[in-house]
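Components:
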Amino acid sequence: MASLLIQNGTLLDPSQNLQQKADLLIENGKIVKIGTGLKADQTIDATGRYVTPGLIDVHVHFREPGDEEEETLASGAAAAVAGGFTTVCVMPNTKPAIDNAAQIEFVLRESERLGLCNVLPTGCITKGREGCELAEMADMHQWGAVAFTDDGAGVNDVSVMRKAFQYIKMFDGLVMQHCEEHQLAGGAMHAGVVSTSLGLPGLPAEAEQLMIARDVLLNRTIGCRYHVQHISTAFSVELIRRAKEDGLPVTAEVAPHHLLLTDEDCRGYDTNFKMNPPLRTAADVSACIAGVVDGTIDLLATDHAPHRAEEKELEFARAPNGIIGLEGAIALYAEALVTPGHIGWLKLIDLMSTQPAKLIRSDRGTLKPGSIADVTIIDPDAPWTIDKHQFRSKSRNCPFHGRSVKGRPTHTIVSGRVVWALGETI
Amino acid sequence: MTVGSVPRTIPESVRSADPTKGRMSTWTHKHLLSLEALSANEITFVLDTAVGFKEVSTRSVKKVPALRGRVVVNAFFEDSTRTRMSFSLAAQRLSADVIDFSGSGSSVSKGETLIDTARNIEAMGIDVMVVRHSAAGAAMTLAKHLQCSIVNAGDGAHEHPTQGLLDLYTIRERFGRIEGLKVAIVGDIGNSRVARSNLWGLKKLGAEVIFVGPPTLVPRTFEQLGATVVHDFDSIIGQVDVINMLRVQNERMKSAQFPTVREFTQLFGLTGERFARCKKGVFVMHPGPMNRGVEIQSDIADGASSGILKQVENGLAVRMAVLYLVSQRAKEPQMNADERR
Amino acid sequence: MQTHYDANAFAALLGTLADRIVAIVPMASPFNVVGIRTRGEVLADRLIPLLRQRGAHDIGHGTLDITLYRDDLSELGPRAIVRPTELNFEIDKRPLILIDDVLFTGRTVRAAMDALADFGRPSAVRLAIFVDRGGRELPIQPDAAALTLDLPLDQQVKVKVAERDGEDAIDVVSRT
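Structure:
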């Protein structure tokens, strides 16, 4: 493989506490040197840009197998690299669900064949995501599943969840939980003034908080690694904060829409604002931002959820939950967190790369010489307009279409190869 | 024989109104989706227009050619005989061609989406679609995707604007005004589109709205929308001018929202005993259909204080007015209407 | 051509109209007078005492709103307010005098006759017009007119009545 030099950029690497103008030399798929005056076969000029460890999104849905019209591993990976991501973790709520080693292996093989970003599989906690019997998690773990989740739903049965924690702890695995008390479920949007006004059934904030509290209590004496997905309410953040203060192995993620949108956006019944957990109030958004700033929320994840247009065109209460998010994620996170001055770019990269790598125990997420060269180059100031029709994703369910934003990736490099560059077809 | 006798309470503003003298004489909305979206002036305009249409129903030939040649479709994806009949008759009195479409047993049950079904109907060349659907927002969604006028005949728990309007009309007819009245709406408010439409209409026209019921059916969030929420009916029963009783549905019992019909009637029913403690001249209403003996005692529903049948009668006039108003294709006039004699 | 008729001229013209009505409808028998909203209604109110002075004794009096009968509904920009029609009398078998302030294309009168048909069957309908300004689009002519003009299309007649406009007057103005 030809050697690659990324020149004149500003390196941002939280893993080395590095923020400096320097060049990055990549050889044979690995980062070999950080310095100046270096030479290579190919050069990328990164003047005015940030050079960061490859971005990692630990929560995406690629609908393969089962709903390939919405997204495939191929189209999802293409969307990911166009968003600057070098690694993604796919959720197992496919059809059939990914609850055995053969399917874990399928995802890894596809990922390798596609040669775009690293697509890492997660496995179900329970067989078929039915919430009753434990899936073959040790086997899946051996074959490369990076975490276990029944995402789309939480594990509702308390005794099953307790056993799951015990079992997963056995091999020091990771639980990712979609926290939603199913007996309070059924709402189409956040339960509040807006849902009352619109006549839509509401999903109360307590539904999320109940399961977080339950799991924290269940796990107190077990100590399994536990990660709360797509956190959305103020008190949820507070529960995580207290759990961390108690020294429990809890982490949390937040999605861009929960940092930028509120339930007021549901007026007009546009299903591009319908997701689970639903958009909450402005106070919840503020609390989530505060949670990111003080470290209660460890990382950012898009919960990229493609859906067919005809499904999203249904009546609000009937439409499926979720929006896509890989392409445009950097700009939206920057708008929510960096532009208002809550955090700087170094911290943003920590949230999008270093911490996710730590969570799934990946050896990426760093620019340390010797590491595999997963690198993202970002132009932080580039103004552009989000145009969903340009997306690589197969789906178009995006509420940010037409939004003027700033900041976009210019190159996505995986294992030393440029798999995506702005404006070029590779 | 007296032909064309006049309804007794035409407001003076209507009797002497001159369209060229400052009063609003234009309705610019292509759709009627909600009362929340209308201004107080617009709501009053619809009510005033309905006065003229009520008179049509007193003639021996109860028809006017205003919508001749237009096609009105009643697209009812949720069952309702009364509202559909009311709209149907209203359209026919305007000389429109009326088509009734009911959701069950059509392509909808074969899996066709709402938008597809509606588009197919529209493709046959229609002017107004009256829509009732069990999903909140359905009318608004159709208005976004279709070219014809949409009249919301009830979308889930969101709004039922013509019911709100006919309730306002009936109250105004009875009291001569809306402003300053205290109106109690009692029952399953949380799931009620009638309650919401009434809330918007009454507040905009200056009435006080009191929602009465158990906390499980009447969430306090309504206070942020301008209603007073009361869980003790007896505490306000002597203060209100209008009592609008909503129907109690047994499904709410099954979903643990109240224990039994018996207890509900005890706490929130308009019993004879409660009625005796009402203000003299209190006006009792109900959107129908009634559960006699449950939310309202039979003799009160049929008695002198009841406006229930008037509501039905006025519903026809209000719906004629609404169909008439949304059917226009507003263009810049070459000449004022009065000039083209 | 005279472009302004003051209150005195107005009163004189009203008397003329009453005389012309008497010539076509027997005052001794019952008959009905219906004004077309809005100013026709006012004129009808004014004419009735004048007709009583000329011998009429049994006059039914009503008002017709023809908004819902206009044939150019879809051409109208702002929609006129719909108001009730009030015809509280025996309509069948008696002559009915239809009164309006200005006759132009004839479409209002056509609409009025359509409306009347829904109420009953007068023995005869006579059209009494205050100002006939010419420009007919339909074959409709007044049976009695106080003032007949022949105006080009770029001019219009404005009839003012004290009850609505503060003064009695007739003005011929250019269309702006």
